[in-house]
Design goal:
Chain lengths: 111, 357
């Protein structure tokens, strides 16, 4: 089964911030309420990044790098998550997200 | 119960009215205060061209406004000498007025001294920023074209006390509506969010280092302006925190910052140089991707509108120093003669030229 999550429609039109205290569009809520449940069910996920004004690093790091800190297996993330980023300048977010995940793996394995 | 005569009732009513009136007078300072301070601003109000003289009066305003006088303080602002103003200096001034009115609303009052003598262009810029709204001076004028200054459109200042992406997006949309050809992609949103996030998360975390109490625990102010003559937009975010350099030793990449500084120079004074500390933090933020907890990448996002588009510049003034970054020249340090009273981040970005008919 494949689920598509369009962030600006399904989650929040203005994604920003790391923690719940940072407002409704924060990375923690997106990770815990959208990403983790879908990954636990083993669903294939297409994350549609288009339509947002932008994605600050703090949001991306907490939402995706935070998956590793939540003990989601890196192989599972690579297997199940795909990204759609066709807005101008949005392709760089895909590489940023994988960089956040890779860094979190490095930090987690060193700890 | 004793029945009151009409005369007694009238007297009681008179006294009640007098008490109410006096209470209102006390509340709104309709009487002359004993402490009145005149603050004059210089001919050129600019943080880049005339820093000391621009910050000096704002500093005086803080000293008087935050002093513990028992009677109300009236601060009279005189800008009749001012011939040119920068958006950055106005933002720092306006935010200080906003803070004083928020913290000491019952002890401090601002008046604009002979503002009818102020240069129309200056009045217009102040009006657009919301200066006269703060001072509760109603101004409703249609400005003729000849009064247009070099920065034609200054957006009203916004003030927030937490991360508010809606406000940031609002500034971006308003900029796009005035600067029709402004199109910097998503980097401006990211940079502003990270700047305000840093202000909220780190700016006020060391209250013992704050010279004056903050308006709220995590306040920030922002504005933007558009100069059609120069095809430029400026976006500004200011907080009244302790400054970047003062918070660096709490960062999980502090050891990397120290390492960078020591690799450049073994001089211990380097740690007292705010500009050098900011430069080191930027260097670490841009080059240490694979290290640390994932925090602290905001600084890199702050540079991204310039770094990724290759145009424009970012100026960060924080504490007693700052940096100016553009892609061609890299990072240039700026030494400030006194503490700016927080952190100011200013992006200067080119807009596309409108098509010629």
């Amino acid at each position: 089964m494949t689920t598509t999550i369009k962030i600006v429609e399904d989650f929040h039109p203005l994604p920003a911030g790391r923690y719940v205290a940072d407002g409704k569009g924060n990375g923690t809520t997106f990770r815990d309420d959208y990403l983790v449940p879908a990954l636990e069910k083993g669903e294939n996920l297409i994350i549609d990044l288009d339509g947002a004004p932008g994605y600050p690093s703090s949001f991306l790091e907490e939402a995706f790098g935070g998956l590793i800190r939540k003990n989601v297996q890196p192989e599972l993330i690579r297997k199940l998550i795909e990204f759609k980023a066709s807005d101008p300048g949005f392709q760089r977010y895909v590489s940023k997200i994988w960089a956040h995940i890779d860094r979190a793996i490095t930090v987690n394995s060193a700890a | 119960m004793k029945r009151l005569s009409a005369k007694q009732r009238a007297r009681i009513e008179r006294l009640r009215r007098r008490r109410t009136r006096n209470s209102l007078r006390r509340k709104h300072f309709k009487y002359a205060a004993d402490y009145r301070f005149n603050i004059s601003f210089p001919e050129v109000m600019s943080l880049s061209d005339n820093y000391a003289e621009t910050i000096g009066p704002i500093q005086k305003m803080k000293e008087h406004g935050h002093s513990n006088h028992r009677k109300p303080v009236v601060i009279s602002l005189d800008m009749s000498n001012v011939r040119s103003v920068s958006a950055a200096s106005l933002l720092v001034l306006n935010s200080e007025i906003d803070r004083l009115l928020a913290r000491r609303w019952n002890n401090v009052r601002f008046v604009a001294s002979k503002w009818e003598n102020w240069l129309a262009m200056v009045v217009r810029q102040l009006e657009r920023l919301g200066f006269f709204d703060l001072l509760e001076i109603p101004i409703d004028m249609n400005w003729p074209d000849e009064f247009l200054g070099p920065q034609e459109t200054l957006l009203p200042m916004i003030a927030c006390d937490r991360l508010m992406p809606e406000r940031v997006q609002n500034i971006r949309l308003r900029l796009e509506s005035v600067a029709e050809f402004f199109d910097q992609g998503p980097q401006v949103y990211e940079a502003m969010i990270e700047a305000t996030d840093n202000a909220v998360r780190h700016g006020y975390k060391l209250p013992e280092l704050l010279l004056y109490p903050p308006a709220m625990d995590s306040s920030w102010w922002a504005t933007a302006d558009y100069s059609p003559d120069h095809h430029l937009v400026r976006v500004l975010v200011f907080d009244q925190g302790v400054g970047i350099a003062a918070t660096l030793d709490r960062w999980d990449k502090w050891e990397l910052v120290r390492g960078y500084i020591q690799s450049v120079t073994g001089d211990q004074d380097f740690f007292n140089d705010d500009a050098a500390m900011i430069e080191a933090a930027l260097k670490v933020s841009r080059t240490s991707e694979a290290m640390g907890s994932g925090h602290g990448q905001g600084l890199r996002d702050i540079l991204s509108p310039v770094e990724e588009t290759g145009s424009g510049s970012v100026r960060i003034l924080s504490g007693r120093g700052g940096i100016l970054y553009d892609k061609a020249k890299g990072v240039q340090r700026i030494q400030l003669s006194s503490h700016i009273g927080g952190t100011l981040i200013e992006w200067t970005l080119p807009v596309k030229q409108p098509p010629q008919d």
